[in-house]
Structures are given as structure tokens and as C-alpha cells.
Amino acid sequence: xxxWYGLVLVVLIALVLGGCATKVEKPAAIVxxxxxxxxxxxxxxxxxxxxxxxxxxxxxTGYGKMSDKQTSIKRAxxxxxxxxxxWVSTSVKEVVVTxxxxxxxxxxxxxxxxxxxxxxxxxxxxxxxxxxxxxxxxVDGGVxxxxxxxxxxxxxxxxxxxxxxxxxxxxxxxAAAANAKMKDAFANLLKGI
Amino acid sequence: xxxxxxxxxTLSLLAGCTTTVVEQPAGALANLDISxxxxxxxxxxxxPYSTQERMVEVAIMAAAKSIHLKAALALDSRLVTASHSDLxxxxxxxxxxxxxxxxxxxxxxxRLRVLSIVFDREAGAVxxxxxxxxxxxxxxxxxxxxxxxxxxxxxxxxxxxGHRFGVGTTGRYSLLNRSLEAADFAAAQNLxxxxxxxxxxxxxxxxxxxxxxxxxxxxxxxxxxxxxxVDRYYDAESxxxxxxxxxxx
Lengths: 193, 249
Description:
heterodimer, A: alpha+beta, Thiol Ester Dehydrase, Chain A, three-stranded antiparallel β-sheet, 3 strands, 14% strand, B: alpha+beta, four-stranded antiparallel β-sheet, 5 helices, 10 strands, 27% helix
């Protein structure tokens, strides 16, 4: 009988301790990305498939596959630079629209005219200091480039557009304040705030 | 005997670790190689002319031009591409220009010290000159060659702190000097593609008969300082000339 008590006691202790045990879950299997080797024996860099971001720089990638490598580089850089231009244009328009809405003048003809002027100026703005940081050639001979532009250069390009808004709002007494506010908004947008 | 075998084994192992360095075949381009000279030594070629005097004169002017290009080379490039949703890329046209200051060319020529003159059937006169007004420094890069005898820069751009590199290539023109000039110009434009001071880009997307058309116009310009042709290569397989150019970062 004592032996039975002993057995029951052992089972109970085992159950109690078992209940205290922490369940160790198997770590989720990490899917290893296959290493892609390019035409020049260089493995595919991460920036080809993953967005690169930094607070002081904006990055875009471009791809080109033409008759030879040099022309492919040209095509790839053209595409990357165009993406940068589009990004700048979209960012500026976003700030201007937000600013105009915030100012409660969305239906105001003068505000809409100002928007038109700014959009035009932004579309015509040049990008300064676009650099090709990295270059990779895939196995088919297609060229990938990673281009960058310093944020400070983009902010500088925004100046003429902001001035245009001030001119468009010449009748408003708050033109200078509006200009400053919009510049701040643009700087914050670039910083992702 | 055992010592000899060990030595042989060590030597064969070490030989396996070395990079094969194959020298470029001698030819017209071999005469243009000034990599053994300091950075204030320049080379100029003339192409064929009726007299040797004329060839030397033109070659000296070409060398002096290199000095002015190094001081400042302004580049601009305009490009238009059009793509259709059903046909893909329909056009990719570019127009490129280079500008340099030739105002003091005569004064520069006066200052040159001629180091050597060689006459070549393809190159005409090849004149190597020294420019004493410039400090003699080590060249920024010396080419390395792969097992096929091709310079490694044809595939991977060199990396040297404070300098940028670009590669240009062109098919053969009737005269060697024209082929080289075209390859050098392409290398300069490659430098501009890789780093543009100013870029203007505008894209128009329209739809016509349910087909989308995308037209992209891009203009860029830049000023290169320290522009130098570091090396040249003729690829017999593709019958093309290659130039490696560098400029200050």
C-alpha cells in the first residue's frame, strides 16, 4: 500500500512540475534567401530588392539592360534619377496640398492658382548632386544602380517653389509666415516626421 | 630529396595563389602607356598626316589639351526615351557635349618639355611631354589584368579615395586618334552619369487607343575637375576601344 502511495506521490510531483514547465516553442524557420550571383561573380546586394533609407539621404534604384554595359548604366541611372525627381515632386505637392487644406483655403481661387504655380516650379526644378553609390550587374547583363541625393539639396530646391507661393499670396499679410510654415512642413516630410 | 620535394610543393602552392598578370600585347596603344611616369606627364597622338613635322605639332597640341581637360571639363547630356505598353522601349536617344577652356593653350604648349617622340603607322606621332607647372605625383591607379589579359577595370570600377572612375567604349573609327577620342568622351559621360551636379527630369505618360505611352526627357550637366585618362585597351574580340577615366570626387 505504501508503495502505491509513493507511486501516486511521484506522479503528482511530476504533473505539478510539468505544469510549471515553460513550453519551448520551436523558432520559426528562417527562410534563407538564395544567394544570387551576378555576371561579374558578385553576389546580389540587398538594395536590389530592399528599400534603402537614411535620414540625410534619399535613395532610389534603377535598372537597365541595353546593347552594352555602358548604355545599360546610362539607362539604369536615368530611371533612378527620374524616380528621385518623381519623389521630390510628389513630396512637394503633398506639402502644398496639406498646407492649403490646413489654411482652409481649398476652394480659394488664389490658393489654387498658387498650387498651380508651385507644381509647375517643382516640376521644373533640377536635382542637385545625384550620385551613383552602387552598381551591380545581374547574370543576364542587366545593370542595377543605387542612386542617392542629399536631403539638404532637396530642401534647397524647394526654396523657389516656396517663394512662388509667397508671391501668389501677395495680398495676404501672413505671406512670410506661410512661407516659413510650408518650408518646415516640407523639411518634416523629408525627415518622415 | 625530401627537402627538394617540400620546396617544390611550397612553390606550387604559392604559384596557385597568385593572380595571373598578363601584359597587354604591344601595339599602337603600348606607345601611349605613360603609367610609369608621374602625373604631370602627358601623351598626345596626331593620327596620320603628310609630314612628320605636322604630326608632332598636332600630337603636342593633343597633349596640351589633356592638361586643360584636367583643369576643368564641363559636360552636358540630353536624353529622350519613349516606351509603349505593347512594344516596350521604342527609342533611347541622347545628345552629349563637352566643353573645355582653350584660351591659354599656346601658353601651355610653350611650357611643355618634350620627353619622347615615336612615329607609329596607326597613331602617327606619339609625343610624351612633361608639364613643369604641375607637381609630379604618383598616378592614382595602375591597371591590373585578368587571366585573359584584359584589364580588370573593364568589369569592376577601381576604388581610390578622393577619385571617381568611369569607363567608356566605342567601336573602331577609321583613325586611331578618333577611336580613342570617342572612347575617352564616352568615359567622361560615364562619369557624368554616375555623378550629376544638376539633373532635370520630366516624364509624360499618355494613353492612346488603350495603349500607354511613356516619354521621358532628362538633361544633366556637371563640371569635372582632374579629368584624366588612366588607361586604354583595345579588345580584339569585340573590336572595340576602351578608356578608363578618373576625376576628383
